[in-house]
Design goal:
It is built from 4 helices and 7 strands, in the order ββαβββααβαβ. Helices cover 30% and strands 30% of the residues. A hairpin with a 5-residue loop joins strand 4 and strand 5. The protein has a 5-stranded mixed beta sheet. A two-stranded antiparallel sheet has the order 1-2. The protein is globular, with a radius of gyration of 18 Å. The protein has a single domain, classed as Nucleotidyltransferase, domain 5. It is of the alpha/beta class. Belongs to the universal ribosomal protein uS11 family. Keywords: Mitochondrion, Ribonucleoprotein, Ribosomal protein. It comes from Marchantia polymorpha (Common liverwort).
């Protein structure tokens, strides 16, 4: 691996993929190592409308579409960061794998409250 301007050849083929899986949609964003967005895909942009956007099949199709574009951009290896509690978490990983990308690392970055908000006062009747 030769270094040229501080970036190795391995980093040119490596990208970071953010999967945001909500109960209504799945959004996949591909960035390079500097955090610059290269491409994105969502269930709505693939062609699913309404309640079909929140299905496992829609998440897998979205991931396959994002993987296809990533390979065209020259990326081969993927570091995945998953955020959210939606239905498309596992199926989007399967879609990235079926799309031809090699997954090197998987991290769950879902925010969890340490104590949360204060609950409302008890109701006095």
């Amino acid at each position: 691996m030769q270094k040229k301007h501080g970036i190795t050849n391995m980093q040119k083929k490596h990208c970071i993929t953010y999967i945001q899986s909500t109960f209504g949609n799945t959004i996949i964003t591909l960035t390079d190592y500097n955090g610059n967005t290269k491409t994105w895909s969502s269930s709505g942009s693939v062609g699913f409308k309404g309640s079909r956007r929140s299905t496992n099949y829609a998440a897998q199709a979205t991931a396959e579409n994002a993987a296809r574009v990533a390979i065209q951009l020259g990326f081969k290896f993927v570091e995945v960061r998953i955020k959210g509690l939606g239905y498309g978490k596992e199926s989007s990983l399967r879609g990235l794998k079926l799309g031809g990308l090699i997954i090197t690392k998987i991290r769950d970055v879902t925010p969890t409250p340490h104590n949360g908000c204060r609950p409302p006062k008890k109701r006095r009747v």
